[in-house]
Design goal:
Strand content: 15-25%
Order of helices and strands: HHEEEHHEHEHHHH
Structural class: alpha/beta
Largest sheet: 5 strands, mixed
Shape: globular
Mean pLDDT: 91
Low-confidence stretches: 1-12
Strand order of the largest sheet: 3-2-1-4-5
């Protein structure tokens, strides 16, 4: 038993710092723009995902790579006029360069798996502002497209609404960015590409602030004994 525990300890030491930071999870920041609130009936119109990189010396996160797609409404999808007016998206505009849901998801999942493997993480975890909404739409689209396995955990997520409420006293993305002294252009908002990268900046700001305050790695009784 002692030998097994020693081997496990050695394996943990050899892990990339990234894989140790969130218990093997690989955070990926996501934003979706949709034609309503019901993930099962309303169209997914835009999706963007931003991967993050970790400086192993400082322990600080920063933005890595962003991938973005305009998405064709799936067959029979509901298009709520109020939602389209809010986002300013015209699903029928040929200049959107929209692609089928399956094409967008497969490209995003391929990138995530490549990045995840490089740092030894076992599973991706979605980071989003009001994460249950975005994860619900990604899960529904994944099922619709008969994609057998998503890299994302099916229900665990990091919600920057909650994190920014705790760290910054704000829950609205624009206001949280303002308090964090991150540039935010309301004219660019409600674009999946813009909102994803702003959410990623916000997440990095909060996690990095915690790091600089001494929150990670945690000092345990075992560390003190050694």
């Amino acid at each position: 038993m002692t030998e097994v525990n020693t081997n496990a300890s050695e394996q943990t030491k050899n892990l990339h710092q990234y894989a140790k930071r969130f218990r093997g999870y690989f955070p990926v920041v996501v934003d979706v723009e949709t034609a309503g609130f019901n993930a099962n009936t309303d169209a997914l119109l835009e999706i963007a995902a931003t991967t993050l990189t970790l400086d192993e010396h400082s322990g600080l996160f920063s933005l890595d790579e962003t991938i973005h797609f305009h998405v064709e409404p799936f067959e029979g999808a509901n298009l709520e006029p109020a939602a389209l007016e809010f986002t300013g998206i015209d699903p029928n505009n040929p200049l959107r360069g929209a692609v089928p849901e399956a094409e967008a998801l497969k490209a995003i999942f391929k990138l995530i798996r490549k990045k995840m493997k490089a740092v030894g993480c076992q599973r991706a975890i979605m980071v989003a502002h009001n994460a249950a909404f975005d994860l619900g739409f990604v899960n529904a689209a994944t099922e619709r497209c008969s994609i057998k396995r998503s890299p994302f955990h099916p229900f665990v997520s990091f919600d920057t609404t909650t994190l920014s409420g705790l760290a910054l006293g704000q829950t609205v993305l624009a206001k949280a960015c303002q308090v964090a002294q991150l540039d935010f252009d309301n004219k660019e908002a409600h674009s999946a590409l813009y909102d994803t990268e702003k959410t990623a900046e916000l997440f990095c700001h909060i996690v990095n602030k915690w790091q600089t305050l001494g929150g990670w790695p945690l000092i345990t009784d075992t560390d003190q004994d050694n």
